[in-house]
Q: What sequence folds into this?
């Protein structure tokens, strides 16, 4: 059952957003620039996105009565994270258009399905093997090699649900460490750089990619994004080609991010897909201040059935995440030249929690 | 009675905004970027700013119980328009800090007091004379000359409350046309251009002016702003000097706009102050997309006690107001390259009503 094709939104429409974190908040702010209203659905009482909308639903994603009222109040539903329960997406899809299509979630919520999907497009990933039971781990290690990373197939993010297996590691300990659940084993990639491409695809099939971003992680959490990435033009073009191929294969509507590794061997660069995020992405935050259109506005334009904009980068850019207590330096950042400060209004600080970000733009390219 | 000096806001603070139009809406969006919460107070039920905040008060500005609750809920109060009733501002000031200081309103709400204030700073205006009664009009016309403009002292905007008196006009008809109320007669200024300067002043006295904007009005309503204004550098510097002198004389905290005429006679340029708006201003909307910091964020930084940013213009800029039915062209504007589209989410379209704006930025300066 489906609510049918999404309508082209009028300027008085309301967008429903599943998830009330900083991504939801920034989606709301982008929609508001365009005159659109939003209704945010989130189980957490102090969600950052709740502060910037008139209409909120604080309820569990399995609360069908709440989902029903939510669906009736909005013209289209979208989401700020990829772990929306499949039943929630299906329930809403039957009542109102959901974009991007929940079928994409079925693939991107499962690391194994995602890797196989990417492979089916002829796009390279790290060598991988499924591990459904502890008995399969030895053969998988044989197949992909060591060092390797064992990851849960579902619900992993920011380094959660994964563990490295080095030459001396005990594989069974690793299996227990990730919670003894269906997993994927991936060979460790000795990458030169981590990059990402944020791409938008409109209903009419038009695709617009932002410039390739180079990402620096600390403890598996994004710390700094730099644009342009310090890679040869041909590698950047290849990364954008990959992102475009993925959104096209999905028939995607909205913004999607592809995280990739750049590997250099024998002087040759190779690009491997690491992960797909079917949503706006932290590595695209620089677009708010550093491009003529932001990833958030592109997403809203796409799901509204409105024309995409052509992004023009405003210079050389660095985006710095303010993690945990780092947010307490906000006054120094406010005083720094060339720095655009974003705070997410989160009520409590926890180590590693994304509390805000700063974008520095140097107009020289 | 006063609530005492305004505190420096923490990142969890709430800003109270009097007025819920598009200026209030854009102030809320700027505050939200910085993690701050807003509470909007406005008598009109479908106020554009209501859509982007969780906490609203829909009540009359004279509703003391509502004002009392509003004051108790916020850390500082500001306003998006200059016609806040003096009693409202005084009532709130006794309960919570109000910025900019309501004393400024007493001057800027009265065209005569405003012109005299500007004159007291040694800054030129058009010749003017007070007209408190119809009998005074003939002498006033004798003094300032014809053609002239008769304006109500209070509550005029977008050309409302004013009428031209040409050589053949009957002065008494003009007096009745503006509603037979205390007025000011100003000689008509044969200006070469209309310009404005948007200036921000922080609590520490720092002043930051945006680049001088050239404004084109249609039927007394701003239609297009262009930056930089096509004026000699010395004239631009003089315009910014005037704006700085005014915010300093007021001991102002926040953003203020000064509208000026550039007059050319015998090859010499003169700058005359036309009007002061003690608030963010339509001619500063270009700063959202065209500068490294917007007028809205500068205002929020100033009233929060946070450091001002140094605005850097991103290129040559044109800001076009979408008035009345012009907003129906929003899809064409969305598809136009270099165009950033802003819609205000207003429920109904009326001729001349400000429904949105478009900013075009060409990175070449």
A:
């Amino acid at each position: 059952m489906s609510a049918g094709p999404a309508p082209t939104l009028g300027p008085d429409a309301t967008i429903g957003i599943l998830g009330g974190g900083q991504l939801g908040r920034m989606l709301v702010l982008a929609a508001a620039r365009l005159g659109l209203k939003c209704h945010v659905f989130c189980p957490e009482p102090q969600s950052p996105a709740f502060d910037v909308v008139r209409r909120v639903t604080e309820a569990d994603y399995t609360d069908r009565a709440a989902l029903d009222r939510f669906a009736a109040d909005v013209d289209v539903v979208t989401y700020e994270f990829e772990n929306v329960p499949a039943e929630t997406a299906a329930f809403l899809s039957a009542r109102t258009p959901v974009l991007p299509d929940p079928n994409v979630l079925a693939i991107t919520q499962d690391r194994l399905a995602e890797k196989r999907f990417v492979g089916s497009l002829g796009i390279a990933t790290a060598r991988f093997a499924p591990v459904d039971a502890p008995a399969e781990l030895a053969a998988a290690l044989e197949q992909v090699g060591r060092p390797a990373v064992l990851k849960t197939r579902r619900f992993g993010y920011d380094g959660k649900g994964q563990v490295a297996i080095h030459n001396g590691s005990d594989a069974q300990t690793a299996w227990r460490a990730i919670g003894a659940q269906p997993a994927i084993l991936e060979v460790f990639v000795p990458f030169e750089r981590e990059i990402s491409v944020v791409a938008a695809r409109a209903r009419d099939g038009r695709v617009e990619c932002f410039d390739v971003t180079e990402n620096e992680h600390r403890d598996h959490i994004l710390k700094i994004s730099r644009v342009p990435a310090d890679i040869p033009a041909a590698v950047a073009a290849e990364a954008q080609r990959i992102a475009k191929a993925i959104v096209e294969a999905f028939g995607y509507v909205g913004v999607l991010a592809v995280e990739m590794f750049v590997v250099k061997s024998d002087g040759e660069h190779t690009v491997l897909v690491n992960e797909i995020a079917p949503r706006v992405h932290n590595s695209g935050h620089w677009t708010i201040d550093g491009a003529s259109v932001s990833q958030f506005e592109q997403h809203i334009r796409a799901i509204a059935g409105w024309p995409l904009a052509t992004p023009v980068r405003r210079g050389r850019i660095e985006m710095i995440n303010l993690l945990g207590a780092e947010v307490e330096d906000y006054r120094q950042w406010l005083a720094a030249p060339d720095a655009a400060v974003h705070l997410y209004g989160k009520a409590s600080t926890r180590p590693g929690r994304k509390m805000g970000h700063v974008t520095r733009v140097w107009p020289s390219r």
Summary: The first helix of chain A runs from residue 22 to 33. Chain A touches chain B at residues 11-12, 25, 28-29, 32-37, 50-54, 56, 289, 292-293, 301, 306-307, 309-310, 312, 314, 327, 330-331, 334-335, 337-338, 340-347, 356, 361, 363 (CB under 8 Å). Residues 198 and 277 of chain A are 9 Å apart (CA to CA).
